[in-house]
Amino acid sequence: MKNFNVEVVAKILILLGFSIFYLKIIVSNEILTYVHPRIIPFAIFGMISMFIITLFLISDVFYNNRKKFKIKNHFIFIFPLIMILFMQSSSANSATKSIDANGKLNESSSTNNSSNNSNNSLPSLNSTYELYSGKSESDGQGQVDKIQLNIVNNIIEVNINNFVSSLDEILGNPKKYEGKEIEISGFVYRDKDLKENQFIIARFMMVCCAADLQVAGIECSSSDSSSYDNGTWVKIKGKIKINTSEDGIDPVISVETISKDPTPDTSYVYPF
């Protein structure tokens, strides 16, 4: 009876482990918790490649290897697989519940979900709440693309699909939209620099992966804002006002109506 080549068997199990993990999160769309949708084709390619390599290794299972198997040589691959068994993904909704009054991720919550929880790996949530720029993108030939806002009955409607582009346009051209009505949904976000009646209507924005998640949104002013805790998902309607300060001119939504969103779409938004 031939002896198993433990080295090859270990490699096959490791490759299968990672392949099955990728297959699971891709099929369930859980992968969107960790990476930008543009990364998914690369993840699929990697998963298929690992399956193919596994097939080629099967023929070497009974190959006589005189070297002694050392598990430490494979620990760098085995350890992540062990972590995967304990890892629990979370949505943006669960992450917002961990934001404290200062706009930072609650440390105790992060500890309780420390098994590589993608949203809880944020370095700091109070780093920024503005988008990358207030300018439209150039097409590479000196022409600037015009961003079309979704305006229905003279109301600017901002949803999950146009959140970044709409706010990018408004933040870049505040005077153009002064006095315009706007409807938008997101979660309440505050930091220490905001006044009691101020908050940010925000969403989590992902550029590449969970490691670069940041808060993106626009400032709001409401006399009823204290009724809503940090991380509460709300729908608001109001008018765009102009706030002039030493830092420049910024748009602010003067909230007319605000209500809790019972079924929020907590998906991430993307700048491109």
TrEMBL record:
Species this chain originates from: Clostridium beijerinckii (strain ATCC 51743 / NCIMB 8052)
RNA-binding as UniProt keyword: no
Residue ranges of the region described as Disordered: 104-123
Keyword annotations from UniProtKB, A to Z: Membrane, Transmembrane, Transmembrane helix
Domain of life of the source: Bacteria
Record protein name field: TIGR03943 family protein
InterPro entries per UniProt: DUF1980, DUF1980_C, DUF1980_N, UPF0703_membrane_permease
Residue span(s) of domain DUF1980: 11-95, 150-271
